[in-house]
Amino acid sequence: KTLPDVVETLIAKELSAGPDRSSRGGSKSGGARDKTRVVTYRTPHNAAVQIYDYKAKQSRVVFGPELVMLGPDEHFSVLSLSGDKPKRPHVIKALHLLLGPDFMTDIVIVETSDHARLSLKLSYNWHFEVDREDPEDSTKIFSVPDFVGDACKAIASRVRGCVASVTFDDFHKNSALIIREAVFGKDA
Question: For the chain, which end, N or C, has fewer CB atoms within 10 Å of the first or last residue's CB respectively?
Fold first, then answer.
């Protein structure tokens, strides 16, 4: 079965990393995948893979740890997520989506009301709460193409707006409170 180049690269990377996701002692020695054999992919623990069937025009989600075997009309949905600090789009390419808990870090440039420019390094914890038995609920985790970039942009916008309304001295004294109120609201 022929696969897109990006999928071939991601499968080869997973095979060389082995089950512990490290590059030492790879389980397969270099070489190309045998295109006459069924395409398999071992979904890691606490991760999900979306597979799209082009003939039936529907997708299915497989939760790990499980071995995925593609049907003749199926292809993997490749995830393209934001990465680096500050966040840039399409840095991370992956076949599986880790369900968390995990964190993401971003660097945000803010300006106070008295025009002091500051660089903030913010980290956010996240995890997906998904019902693995409900197919409709499990496809929702793949409904946003780049959840990392969208979340970081939304939170950075709220923090910039809140910091822009206070002076440098106020922000310096109460930075944790101001950022917490910007992200979670006044009642949190």
Answer: C
